[in-house]
Amino acid sequence: MSFPLPEPMKQALSLARAAAEKGEVPVGAVIVRDGAIVAEAANAPRRLNDPTAHAELLAIRAAAAALGEDRLQDCELWVTLEPCAMCAGAIALARIPRLYYGASDPKGGAVEHGPRFFTQSTCHHRPEVFSGIGEAQAAALLRSFFEERR
User: Are 135 and 103 a contacting pair, CB within 8 Å?
Assistant: First the structure.
């Protein structure tokens, strides 16, 4: 049985598609508070000439600015790809309580792969993690993006 995608993941996938059209790795992120989107972003390292301009970091920065808070304790992060170590660290620092992501990233992911950031004793905040939401769509976007460049 398949279920319809939640609206935040639909929006994250839309952002990822837009990133791919601009030549960026197709990753989109959305931050939700009380059921409403408060911030969203797509990968932009090439466009911004900033290796840290991952969708998650840009969305976290935008949400913190919009809400006037450095801790996003009552927000959810929806992202199309398993976060890397840098983004997992930002999620922990922002105290985001719930993380939803689409495709797993065995090479660069740091949530369920690699360093498994949130399981480390030095990690002081561990969000609830829900993976595989929109996985097929997110993985297809990534596969298509990289196939076109090979």
Answer: yes
Query: Which residue do the tokens 């049985």 mark?
Result: 1
> Which burial class, exposed, middle or buried, applies to 109 when counting CB atoms under 10 A from its CB (0-12, 13-18, 19+)?
buried
Distance between CA 103 and CA 28 in Å, rounded? 12
pTM: 0.95
Phi then psi dihedrals of residue 33, to 5 deg: -135, 125
For tokens 């949400």, the residue is: 63
Q: Which helix (H) or strand (E) holds 101?
A: strand 98-103
Q: Residue 149: phi, psi to the nearest 5?
A: -100, -5
- Give the tokens for residue 14: 């839309």
Catalytic residues: 56
Rounded to the nearest angstrom, the gap between the alpha carbon of residue 45 and the centroid of all alpha carbons in its chain is: 14
pLDDT single digits (tens) 60-74: 999 999 999 999 999
Residue 130 phi, psi (nearest 5): -125, 110
CA dihedral 114, 117, 118, 122 (to 10 degrees): 140
β-pair partners for 81: 103
